[in-house]
Design a protein that fits this description.
Elements lengths: L3 H38 L1 E2 L10 E7 L4 E6 L7 H4 L11 E8 H6 L8 H9 L4 E8 L9 E6 L1 H14 L20 E5 L10 H12 L3 E2 L5 H4 L11
Antiparallel strand pairs: 1-8, 2-3, 2-6, 3-4, 4-5, 5-7
Helix pairs in contact: 5-6
Length: 238
């Protein structure tokens, strides 16, 4: 049987361990967000002109992450033939694309459906991904959460290469449609490539898309406001 002195010593050790764990957690959080703030502000493609080009590409924020909107049909890509017929793509419309945690996309249709376990798994455990694709009859309305970039044909082709690599594809090279209805009539989910985790978030993916386009972007942008930091402040105005 342990003596009172032994028990007291054990408790002191446990308190020291708990304090060290708390300090380590606080330091880790501070390092993560500090690195994000610094690396967001260090640009790539620093001299690129945001409206230098002929192809309109939009970045649209929902307050948590930023989607990419591209024209449904250009000389470089007709999305209505690239995507399966289950998703109707208007000829003169736009296609919205986002990459993210598959469980989050397919199991959390509204914020009320978000659980602690889903959030923790999405952040701390490398997990499967999905591409969320929606089709619209026109570009997004000009608003505070919309940013316009104009791409050159060369930049847009580089973006398409990046987007194609984000889709898992079958033996025929077609994107793999997930057995999930989507949020509404005009969107579907596809199997994505790569893993989602704390250091590769949906906003890191969007920022990488802007980099592929050849436009000014941050070096690492895990949060929504980081992904928007270098976007032009024209708010989608034409």
């Amino acid at each position: 049987m342990d003596t009172p002195a032994a028990l007291s010593g054990t408790m002191r050790k446990l308190r020291r361990l708990a304090l060290r764990a708390l300090v380590a957690c606080v330091a880790g959080v501070a390092l993560y967000f500090g690195a994000a703030e610094l690396l967001t502000r260090l640009p790539v493609n620093a001299e690129a002109e945001p409206l230098d080009g002929t192809i309109d590409v939009y970045l649209v924020s929902n307050g948590v992450h930023v989607d990419l909107w591209v024209p449904a049909r250009t000389s470089e890509r007709d999305w209505s033939t690239w995507l399966p017929p289950e998703l109707y793509v208007p000829a003169d419309g736009y296609v919205a694309l986002g990459w993210g945690n598959r469980e989050f996309y397919t199991e959390v249709p509204t914020w009320d459906d978000l659980t602690v376990s889903v959030a923790l798994r999405a952040v701390f455990w490398p997990s499967a991904t999905a591409m969320h694709v929606g089709a619209y009859f026109g570009p997004p309305y000009a608003a505070d959460d919309v940013h316009l970039l104009r791409a050159t044909p060369e930049g847009y082709r580089a973006l398409l290469t990046f987007l194609d690599a984000s889709f898992e594809r079958d033996a025929d090279g077609r994107p793999v449609l997930l057995d999930h209805p989507g949020y509404g009539q005009g969107d579907r989910f596809f199997a994505g490539t790569g893993s989602y985790h704390l250091f590769r978030t949906c906003n890191v993916w969007t920022n990488a898309a802007v980099r592929a386009l050849g436009k000014r972007a941050g070096r690492w942008t895990p949060l929504e406001r980081h992904a928007r930091f270098h976007l032009p402040r024209n708010r989608g105005e034409r």
